[in-house]
Fold this sequence. Notes:
By secondary structure, the chain is an alpha+beta fold. The chain is 46% helix and 10% strand.
Amino acid sequence: MVETVERTDLHTLPLAPKNPLPYRQQLKAVRSFHSGLETLRDAGGPVTRLTLAPKWLAPTVVIATSPQGARDILGRGGGHIEKTRVHAEMRHLLGPNLFDLTHEPWLPRRRALQPMFTKQHVREFAGHMAEAAQTVADTWTDGAEVDLDTECRKLTLRALGRSVLGIDLDAHAEVIAEPLHVTTEYITDRAMRPINAPRWLPTPARRRARTASATLHRLADDILQECRADPTREAPLVHALIAASDPATGQTLSDNEIRDELIAFMLAGHDTTATTLAYAMWALGHHIDMQDKVRAEALAVGDHELTPDDVPALRYTVQVLHEALRLCPPGAATARMAMQDVEVDGYRVEAGTMLVVGIYALHRDPALWDHPLDFDPDRFSPRNSEGRDRWQYLPFGAGPRSCIGDHFAMLEATLALATVVRCTEIRSKNPDFPIITPFTTVAAEPIRATVTARGGRRR
């Protein structure tokens, strides 16, 4: 866990420089969490300041797209830097969870849940990951055109349900997908507006969001109660949440807290991994030589269903996923609030400022990466990774509040990608992979590809 040491002479540091773009361009750019932050970086440098409204209406915004800036923002522990308005909106609608809690209640929750998500423990969650990928690939007609985005969402939903929740989520696809979309859209919309209607006012959007939240909570409660009624039910994440306790106090989670964490896990574990897989498959569909390397690697481990024991032999597959995560990170940006004056990459940032780490812009910065727009998995080989700044590659965030599910996500994606590619050749039809960032990074349109059966386990 990294924590930045605060300088004692903060008052001697200059404020972050104002961004020179005209106001309308700044406003347009800040609403685009991916390419817009690149625009602001190119105009104002790796640390730049925006004043979009009077302070009583909206906070000053400082955007950092440098490794040191990211470290100074995300590496701090304690309550110096807190979660932002979007997290408050999420807490209010979906409930307090590990993603949106403020520091004081977050700390015991993180202590309780951390043992569940170590690299060794998440192997227990892998029971049906490869099987889910295989069953999706088996539905593809030889020579058919598919939408990689839709298929990868189907795959991750199936893996999430069968591997960790003990439920067939195929039958609940609409119950999950639409409510998640409605709630995240509502949360983001409220967080981005300087002025909102009060929460007690029953607007149409609020009614839809509350209905969607209630639907998700009912599903989470059904899953939890079924696992309580049947301790032998194969649902490792749910049973782990039931058994979890804070090692410092022995306090276990209430049913409400477990339900809130299940919803957060469904939110974080569905769109994000699906988009990463879709991007990786799309890229391999344009680089058949790379696809052949993934296939050869997957075939070399044998004709059995892939398991976590095979992952050490899938090194190039992991490199492909790292490159997909670099070019299409699940969180294009992450935000915090400065609760006191802090230093960010040599500049003083005043208390009350919103701090934004532009991860997408950081990952594509030509000052940090050679040929940054090229898809090149070899940049993540052990040799080429030597000496790289830890803080220039942040697909799962970093610091004390980094994504707790990073090992799970990588295990799921590795087994799924290797399983699909060893039995299918993918030829991408879309020349590019357009993205939007309504909450997490997702495909902006269908990602078309032609799939052809190859060797491997596909029958």
